[in-house]
Amino acid sequence: MKNPKTKTVQEELKKDKQMLIQEIRTAHETWVAAQAHFEFALDKDQIDYAIYAMEAAEKRFEMLIKQAKKLGVSLIDSDRLMEVK
Fold first, then answer.
1. What InterPro entries does the entry give (predicted)?
2. Residue 14's Cα: distance from chain center in Å?
3. What is the H or E stretch that residue 51 is in?
4. Are 24 and 65 in contact (CB under 8 A)?
C-alpha cells in the first residue's frame, strides 16, 4: 500500500511538469512570433523592438528547457504527461 503523502507529492510533481511543458510550448510560440515580427519590421524602431522581443523570447525558452532538463522532463514524456486522467 502506497503512502498517501507519496502519492500527493507525485501528483504535484506531475502537475508541475505539465505546467512546465505548457510554458515551454507557449514560450516557443512566442519566440516564433517574435521572429516573424522581425521579418516584417520596417523601420529602425520596429527592428530594434523586434530584436529585443526575439532575444527575450529566446532566453525564456532556453531557461525553461534547462529547467525541464533538471526535472528530467523530455519531449518523449510530454504527451504522456499532458494526458488528463
1. DUF2508 (IPR019644)
2. 15
3. helix 44-71
4. yes
Distance linking the first and last C-alpha atoms of the chain: 21
Judge contact between 4 and 60, C-beta under 8 A.
no
* SS3 (DSSP) at 75: helix
d(C-alpha 64, C-alpha 70), whole Å? 10
Q: Say how far apart CA 21 and CA 40 lie, in whole Å.
A: 29
Residue-wise pLDDT tens digits, 3-49: 666 778 888 888 888 899 999 999 999 999 999 999 999 999 999 99
Listed as own residue / partner, the contacts of 40-43 with beta carbons closer than 8 Å and 24 or more positions apart are: none
Which amino acid type is present at position 83? Answer: E
